[in-house]
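agent> Task received from the user: take the single chain below, predict its 3D structure, and emit structure tokens. No templates, no multimer pairing.
agent> Plan: (1) validate residues, (2) run structure prediction, (3) serialize to tokens, (4) report one or two observations.
agent> Step 1 OK, no nonstandard residues flagged.
tool_call: predict_structure(input=
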Amino acid sequence: MPPSRPTSRGRSAVAAALPWAVAAALRLTGTERGYPLVPALSFVPYAAATAVLPLGGALRARSRAAVLLAGASGTVLAGAVLSRAGRRPSAPAPDGDRLRVATVSLRLGLVSAAPVLDLVRRCDVDVLAVAELTPAAERALRAAGIDDLLPSSHVIAARRGSAPSASGAVWTRREVRSRGSVPGGFEQPRVRLATSGGPDVEVTAVHTPPPSTSPAAVRNWTRDLAALPGTEPGVLRVLAGDFNATLDHAALRRVLRRGYVDAARVTGRALDWTWRPLRLRHPRLTLDHVLVDPRIAVRAVELVPVAGSDHLALVADLVLPR
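)
tool_result: status=success, residues=322
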């Protein structure tokens, strides 16, 4: 005898809920590995927003198993997203040294110099972390007067065989005590800056390769995130830029567990997107971050459009301990 219609509908409802269940299980356990699971975890907010669809199908099918599966999956996904809502405690805001750190992505060097300099002026930026710089973009920025606003710089040109936009840079108005880099597929310059009476502050312009195209891309992205330095007592560290990772990625959460706090999460901005394709309204993903040593107080985070860029600039208003 063929199965009854409710049983068949129930099985279909369970099957329909499985993609949300897999996403919830991976997000809950942090076990996403390889391609395409890692890039798929970027879309957890979209999965959470649509989790009512399998639940509605389960209710219509009157399938207890499907209702439980869809309901549990939706709860996990919604919890992961909503846990980022609201402000989080930061270090006490001392009467210390103010430092404004901004990130900007030049979209393969195609962003013109004017909106970058406008960002520096309007937001009174002290340190600018630049990704996707090219030799032509660097020349344009210098010709437009970025060295007048931020006189010290550390530019690392792309290695031979890499795309010109693999270059990275930091511009700053602060005294630079030393210059270095963090290893990675893209150039990630690091500067150590003098402060007013406290430990030096070290800022790294982060740019990891996107894990979105192949298994090799995921391996490179995982390696570069793992190579980012952790916090340590003798220096105040800030990692700022395009991580190509969201807080739903276990690899980024492991970076946070090395002693950092996410400035946007502290200020209640962690649900705000920072990247979308220029010609499309969606997807909108939170790929850019400013991670800070917990001894640094976070006063505010602002997301600023930059004409021509597919990323919003992040401007973090920080207070350094004396």
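agent> Step 4: summary for the user.
Residues 5-82 form one domain.
agent> Done.
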